[in-house]
Amino acid sequence: MKSEQKQRLLNAKENIKAAQLLAHSHFYDIAISRSYYAMLYVAEALLLEEATAIPTQQEAISSLFAEKFSEKSPLFQPYGIYLNNGLEARLRADYCHGEKATLAEAKQHINRAKAFLDLAKHYLSAEPVAMGRADVMASRV
Predict the structure, then answer these.
(1) Which portions of the chain are predicted below pLDDT 70?
(2) Model pTM score
(3) SS3 content of the chain, % helix, strand, coil (to 5)
């Protein structure tokens, strides 16, 4: 794992912790915003596996994540949706001053961010397979 990826995963972990503390203190909108940023950092870490540079605009990061991961793999498909839903929820939380978020909504986004982080840690730390299935079968003969 590259140092840039480790830093983004650390940022994600810190944002999840902050979101949990904010939700516990009844700051649900801000917790949702922090949860979204945690997912954004995770997406960036994963994208660094595929490219040396990533976009700076959040919508472009979501699009590139979809192209490189969620459209290609069923494993990542829900996380592309979580990322897009998270952006929509963050925009509502940050800019819509009428209806406030609930504890249930904040928990949902926090749980999604935690699951996304766990998936990325596993994916980025997985050892590459030394031999393919055909190689294994041939070595048994």
Answers:
(1) 127-141
(2) 0.84
(3) 75, 0, 25
